[in-house]
Amino acid sequence: MGEQPIFTTRAHVFQIDPTTKKNWVPASKQAVTVSYFYDSTRNSYRIISVDGSKVIINSTITPNMTFTKTSQKFGQWADSRANTVFGLGFASEQQLSKFAEKFQEVKEAAKLARDKSQEKVDTLSNNSQDSGPETPSANQASSINGTDDEKIFHVGPEAALLQTENDQLKSAVEQSNTNAKKWETELQTLRENNARLVDALQESSANVESWKKQLSTCKEESDTLREKIAELEAQCNEANQEKQKNAQLSVRVQELEAELQDKEQKNNPTETHASSLSFHLRSRNKQQLYT
Q1: pTM over 0.85
Q2: What does residue 21 show for φ and ψ, rounded to 5 degrees?
């Protein structure tokens, strides 16, 4: 199955300053993934962390290592093979405790694996002694402990795995950068569209206010005109009523004058002509007056 992650968390990674051996130097700009890996082939454990395309922790756990809590959220361990001290800053005390518990668990597993390996070595040594007085040759010791070539061979797959991981991470970073640029362009387009929509909305709002004012003015003018029309219609009605009254009065006057003329003719026929002439003149003047 090869190497598989068995525990993962997130933390800020630090390394001890190689010059002063006192100050911490940040190895990551932000919290990154820190994982325990188990290699079933080699029966070994490692702590690995990658920031972007850079491997910032590659520490093989040995039984001699110790993880120390230096504060509520910070812990450290020394790696003699990497010739450095790693420090991790966690977001909570609970995360630090879990990481420390896992470190102790992995450390015990590494110790157990080493003891089993030592038992195998002792067994082979005893078998060798039982078969004869000869001591193990250099080749036999090398086969037990592993020759330099074999050690290099063991390192090879790790380097290849890291290279593969780095290539995948680089590809992911490049894809993320491409997507980020695309999203940035789309975001800028959306901002410009939003700005245009805001301008159009403001312009529409201004037009609506202007139309409301114009509508109010038109309503006021319409109301004024209606009042004037009603006033004029009332005046016309009054004038028509007066005309009707005058016409009725004129007719009545004519009737009365005709009756008077008839009476005068009966009483004095000589004055009839003069009265008739006077009657016609008065009637014509009255008609002119009332019209």
Answers
A1: no
A2: 60, 20
